[in-house]
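Researcher: Structure for this, please.
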Amino acid sequence: MLKMTDREFDQLAGFIKSNYGIKLYKEKKPLAVGRLSNVLLRLNLKSFSQYYDYVISDKTGEAANELVNRITTNHTFFMREKEHFFYLRDEILPNLSKTLKDKDIRIWSAGCSTGEEPYTIAMIMDEYFQEEKIFWDTKILATDISEKVLGIARKGEYSNEKISALPANWRLRYFKKVNEEKSILIDKIRNDAIYRKFNLAEEVFPFKKKFHIIFCRNVMIYFDDHARKSLIQKFYNIT
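Model: Predicted structure, token format:
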């Protein structure tokens, strides 16, 4: 297996931090080696220094995308930390449904990964509004830094293990069976999420309208204190 020096790790960690706001701690070096070694072999590179040079010289941004895709962990499933979704259903939606005259609920799933979070929100919204939903704009903006995970999210196809935490009637109502191992979301729910690539480390968020709800869960664990405070302030400014 290829070895990574401390200097090489610092180079890659510095690039990720400055471009994506993600803090890669020293103890993650074995993880970085494990996830990037195949990339170096594929590119016929002999060291992580050569790989760093390759990433920073690639003007298309594809090399940087692959780097951050491989480094970040995308472990998620439907109805993860279900209390958050129950709070949305039981507290937030009843309040908004009474106070929003234009019937436009603006929701952002920031760091949406492979789509389980925004789709869970979409199902919550569908269950809450039921036949009244046609009178509401309930589209969800779902963003992530990784084009790879966004592609998976747009497809809307998941292993049955990923959807096992959902109520049985939801699995029947909102999914179609692909085979014994996978199911796919119905269009009604899949079309409620609008997926876009977006970097939360951007200095200025470009949104013209403010959001009523922002979900940003299990994302800031990758950030240092300064980046967390900066992101929270930016969220505050658009709500």
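Researcher: Any notable elements?
Model: The mean pLDDT is 92. The domain at 6-71 is CATH 1.10.155.10 (Chemotaxis Receptor Methyltransferase Cher; domain 1).
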